[in-house]
Inverse folding.
């Protein structure tokens, strides 16, 4: 009889302890155990391009403190790619950046983030990421192509900046008033350089020597009229240069 009462008492104590533990977990007295979420649901939803399912499925993995590092990286990369496909560029960059913090040896992710920077118009950051991808994997074909293209573009921009405000001729030797005026005005200097470059292009594209000579005579006539007309009350140097550039570039049926 005493043994039976002892069993009943022990059962009551155990039940009370379990109830108290559940109550504490429910009220925040002690942290409840967080179950690890399977990353497969996130990966499947992103592969299916299903934004409605991928959002909660990937967030459940990414926001879960129990998620293993490899699964967290997979979920971030998958969600980042999905966001990129749906033009949510800033969020995609954020996911790729977090994945790279966890594993800085991901050449594919550096390349992907570089392409996102390019979409945002941030070419220096893009070329930096393409370079990082190539340092990890020198044979990364996409990164090589991207890096080459953007490096050329940056080189071209740098070259343009280097000659910005400089005309087609050496200002140190400028003698005519019109030449000095062009050298003293960045906008006119840029226009002069563009006219010179456009004329050089049409000369290269000439079909024969006769056409080349004809085109060069037109350029010489323009320069002569410019030199003679500058300084006259009705003469507009900027307008004359713009009209010559338009003509060379094929505007007005030239």
């Amino acid at each position: 009889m005493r043994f039976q009462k002892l069993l009943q008492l022990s059962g009551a104590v155990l039940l009370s302890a379990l109830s108290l533990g559940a109550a504490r977990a429910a009220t925040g007295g002690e942290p409840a155990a967080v179950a690890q979420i399977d990353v497969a649901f996130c990966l499947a939803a992103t592969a299916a391009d299903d934004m409605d399912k991928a959002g909660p499925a990937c967030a459940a993995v990414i926001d879960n403190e129990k998620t293993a590092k490899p699964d967290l990286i997979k979920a971030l990369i998958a969600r980042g790619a999905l966001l990129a496909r749906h033009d949510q560029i800033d969020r995609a960059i954020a996911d790729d950046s977090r994945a790279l913090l966890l594993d800085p040896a991901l050449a594919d992710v550096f390349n992907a983030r570089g392409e996102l920077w390019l979409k945002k118009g941030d070419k220096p950051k893009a070329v930096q990421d393409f370079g990082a991808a190539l340092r990890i994997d020198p044979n990364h074909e996409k990164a090589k192509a991207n890096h080459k293209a953007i490096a050329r573009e940056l080189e071209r921009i740098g070259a343009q900046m280097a000659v910005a405000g400089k005309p087609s001729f050496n200002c140190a030797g400028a003698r005519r008033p019109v030449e000095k005026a062009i050298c003293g005005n960045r906008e006119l200097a840029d226009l002069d350089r563009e006219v010179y470059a456009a004329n050089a292009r049409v000369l290269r594209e000439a079909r024969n020597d006769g056409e080349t000579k004809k085109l060069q005579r037109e350029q010489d006539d323009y320069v002569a009229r410019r030199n003679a007309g500058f300084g006259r009350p009705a003469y507009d140097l900027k307008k004359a240069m713009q009209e010559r550039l338009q003509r060379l570039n094929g505007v007005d049926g030239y």
User: Anything to note?
Assistant: Residues 1-32 have pLDDT under 50 and may be disordered. The two ends are 117 Å apart (CA to CA).
